[in-house]
Amino acid sequence: MASMAQWVWPAVRALRLWGPGGERAWARRPRIAGRRTPVPFSAGVSSIFGSGGSSEKEKLFLQDIAELIQARACQRVVVMVGAGISTPSGIPDFRSPGTGFYSSFQHADVPYPEAIFELSFFLHNPRPFCTWAKEMYPGNYRPNIIHYFLRLLHDKGLLLRLYTQNIDGLERVSGIPGSKLVEAHGSFASATCTVCRRASPMEDFWAAVMGDRVPSCAVCTGVVKPDVVFFGEALPQRFLLHVVDFPTADLLLILGTSLQVEPFASLSEAVRSSVPRVFMNQEAVGPLSWRPRSRDVLQLGDLVDSVERLVELLGWSEELKDLVQRETGKLSGQDR
Ligand SMILES: [Zn+2]
């Protein structure tokens, strides 16, 4: 996995970050919560931090985070998520020993499970990937309460950006707009011909995959691949938004990821040192355990429980319940 950073950074350097047509929201000057005061967190939450710079040494708890959000002392929230937020939807984590996809995937033609996400193997034999993709057909899985909590964060105008490593697209399905998302490992939202690089309609891709055929380009008959980032491919251009998002964030939520994959893992270090980082995961791994900061909040154990606890502390439980009911109703309507 360490090699991932090597193939990402040259691509990053080669891109023009400030190209035309890009989203300009992140070009705004960083805004300090509380506005009138130079200390990062202020009015209304002084009881938590006391006064002056030394207060930043104080240990924070989930309750404090909830109060910061309620007081709108945190309103530029960056969220990073991984496979752990989708396991409650029934999507197996890739890496869990025993139950994870890499442990369970067996296909006669595949030398080792990771091979199905390697470009060279895909070009040699796309069938195993297509078998796997069939499982990911839109509608096979539904967003869960964690996705809807993030949607609520967006509805309340608090979500600066959601960085996801997941390729299941459930963040979109939950109603979070694409402009708020960085799908760092790509998605099934679009597909491209591996030969002529033309975009290919997703309906064609799914029609082929669901019919156990290899999707091919209508123009050159080359194999069509969804824009999921394989090993050996550059991350999507939108990933560059991190350059502006992280330094201007005033809260970082990290949910359901052990931060083992670069460059995603290093992003957790990119927020200012005064910015609280909330880490919710089954177990502590990655930068937050080996390079902890004084304002980190660790909430380990079942992720749904942890998110529900925060939602409760925020006083959003009823609102979230309503949102889930409304959205689930919409999705069921589409199935009919
Ligand atoms: Zn083509």
TrEMBL record:
EC class: transferase
Reactions this protein catalyses: N(6)-acetyl-L-lysyl-[protein] + NAD(+) + H2O = 2''-O-acetyl-ADP-D-ribose + nicotinamide + L-lysyl-[protein]
Cofactor note: Binds 1 zinc ion per subunit.
Active site: 185
Cofactor: Zn(2+)
Pfam family, one: SIR2
Binding site for NAD(+): 83-87, 93-95, 165-168, 257-258, 281-283
EC code: 2.3.1.286
GO molecular function: histone deacetylase activity, NAD-dependent; NAD+ binding; zinc ion binding
Keyword NAD: yes
SUPFAM superfamilies cross-referenced by the UniProt entry: DHS-like NAD/FAD-binding domain
Listed CDD domains: SIRT1
Binding site for Zn(2+): 193, 196, 217, 220
GO CC, one annotated term: nucleus
Alphabetized UniProt keyword annotations: Metal-binding, NAD, Transferase, Zinc
Domain Deacetylase sirtuin-type: 55-317
Family: Belongs to the sirtuin family. Class I subfamily.
Biological function: NAD-dependent protein deacetylase.
Protein name: NAD-dependent protein deacetylase
Gene source species: Molossus molossus (Pallas' mastiff bat)
